[in-house]
Amino acid sequence: MIFKNSFTILSLNTNLVFKTLLYTIVLTALFIAVLTSIVTPLINEIFVQVDIIEQLKIPIDHWLRGEITSSGELFRAIRHAISFKPDATGMVLVNVIILYVLLMFFMHMTNIPITNVLFNKMSQGYNERFHMSLIASLPKSIVYSFITAVTGSIIDLLIFFGCMSLLSALYTVFNIFTLTITIAIILILVAGRVTLFSQWAPIIICENKKVLPSLLEAIKSMRSVFVLAYPSILLAMIIFFAIFMTTIAVTFAIVPIIVIPAYIVLLQCIGLTSYFTSKNRKYYISDGLRLSSQSEISIISGEFDDDSIITEPSEVEPIESGGELPNTISPSESETPVGAQDDKSSELEIAEENAQANQGSDEE
Q1: How far apart are CA 358 and CA 364, in angstroms?
Q2: pLDDT tens-digit map of 316-349
Q3: What backbone torsions phi and psi does residue 131 show, to the nearest 5 degrees?
Q4: What domain range is 131 assigned to?
Q5: Residue 289: phi, psi to the nearest 5?
Q6: How many CA within 13 A on the CB side of residue 171?
Q7: CA torsion angle 210 213 214 220 (round to 10)
Q8: Angle, to 10 degrees, between the axis of helix 2-11 and the axis of helix 254-278?
Q9: What is the CA radius of gyration of the chain?
Q10: Residue among 181, 160, 183, 178 nearest 63 (CA)
Q11: Predicted structure pTM score
């Protein structure tokens, strides 16, 4: 349910994907221009030491062709390749890590603005301008992106080196299939890392909290949200990883360039959908479409059914005599979907009771 509704929201907000692509390119170019003195030496250092990379290719190519048949031989060959210039190899590794942290920082700069735009759309049906949200949330986005880049990079490094050790242990059993198994394990673990922080941006926006208190609140909420968000995030990562790997060469990286912002927006959709579901709150999918909370679904249908979640007023089937149609709301009828109709009903009931009481007193 979470993935289906999140993908529906993504498909109906394609303009946000292209705005994310545009602003990500502009923002990345801006920060790279400011940090040229740091980024350029790192890139130059990597290319200067390209002979080390070429040396590392030799044992890996032999392993993929089956010329190296044991994990011990593979890692001995790798150690032999880097033993010629250990200092240069260490420098290349440090430079790659720094560039990865910077890349993580740039990619997460748009998370809070995207979440803000989607939140206004899903909660009130209001289309907020992306660039206005980007400017307004810039201080929070910088702190959020910095913490996410540092912590995410540390976790990813632990996952990478752990999986490399696992690759060495499994190679004698699965041989050439070990690489596929290792990639699958990396996706599973990285999806867990993404899920762990998936409620951070929604709490910052939905509850209007500061960055650090929101992080603590997001981690605490994992008990109820992890089961909701993790399967959808893992499925999204598998789909986009498959699209990325199968299209990067044949489309000259054009499709991956479009896929990356779509993936970023989808992750924010999943985070918000999981947040609304865990809080048992309504949210709009599109104009004229609304999604009820689980408790309302159980009242309407008697059980939880994915197909009964999305309803459209023009397509609601008549109910037999004696029954009532479930309330459906649209952004044009109310700006706040949560509890607005219930408040009006309560006011009408109170007014009727007062009228009956006054009538009874007049008769006496």
Answers
A1: 10
A2: 333 333 333 333 333 444 444 444 444 445 455 5
A3: -65, -30
A4: 2-49+85-279
A5: -120, 135
A6: 20
A7: -170
A8: 130
A9: 26
A10: 178
A11: 0.71
